[in-house]
Amino acid sequence: xxxxxxxxxxxxxxxxxxxxxxxxxxxxxxxxxxxxxxxxxxxxxxxxxxxxxxxxxxxxxxxxxxxxxxxxxxxxxxxxxxxxxxxxxxxxxxxxxxxxxxxxxxxxxxxxxxxxxxxxxxxxxxxxxxxxxxxxxxxxxxxxxxxxxxxxxxxxxxxxxxxxxxxxxxxxxxxxxxxxxxxxxxxxxxxxxxxxxxxx
Length: 200
What we know:
By secondary structure, the chain is of the alpha+beta class. It has one domain (5-196). It contains six helices and ten strands; from the N terminus they run αββαααβββββαβαββ. A six-stranded mixed β-sheet has the order 5-6-2-1-8-9. The longest helix has 22 residues, at 5-26. It is globular and about 50 Å long.
């Protein structure tokens, strides 16, 4: 856990900067030209829930997306979930891996949510993780959009510990400082975290 007030304040500043960059990547006249995404990773006792936030231009850059000619602005909830199942799940299977102590676990695309500011949240889950050592290594390897955009893309990732789900998790993400921050980049796609075995 982050115990010092200084570290908490630093993380809050980083969160604010990330929000500014995400906003900049959405605005047409923004001076922030780097295609930046954001993600939040919640580690619970038995699994991981994550949300990846991309604006519409970034979503369209995903390999094969332009050919599909999705109308993101007018797509119904049913159409968005079909896109999550039929298109994003196979893509995530190739681009994101989660492992504990070297053992890989399936990453499920649960849904995609469209927000009013043209940001889309892709919700992921990884279930039934085994913490079989006193100290475990959680590895997230993230390569979304790196083949398409190379070094022009980065994803600012935040790490949390909680068992919250649903609306409680969304609120937790909004109001709780992250324990750690990492930048997924073309040359640094893997994030390793030390995780103690949960108490019974």
